[in-house]
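Need residues for this backbone.
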């Protein structure tokens, strides 16, 4: 980041508001990069060059319950899904 503090514009309680496969296009609206952490593995997708199907998005973005992996955050045109200390350090500084 550039040293400016982050502003949280919206918070969603994942326990109450389930986000599933049908909602993923909305989560990614206008996003150009998707960064997904699963365990120690971090995958980065260029959403402009890589056209992903709904099934492909669901496979990487949803957890075993069929809901969006947490935490998920949008940083401009980037969407980070799942927890990775390394990815957070890279994108949040």
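Answer:
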């Amino acid at each position: 980041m550039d040293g400016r503090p982050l502003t949280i514009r919206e918070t969603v309680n994942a326990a109450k508001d389930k986000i599933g496969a049908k909602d993923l296009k909305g989560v990614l609206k206008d996003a150009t990069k998707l960064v997904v952490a699963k365990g120690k593995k971090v995958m980065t997708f260029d959403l402009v060059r890589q056209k992903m199907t709904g099934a492909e998005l669901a496979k990487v973005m949803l957890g075993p319950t069929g809901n969006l992996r947490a935490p998920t955050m949008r940083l401009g045109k980037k969407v980070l899904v799942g927890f990775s200390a390394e990815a957070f350090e890279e994108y949040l500084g």
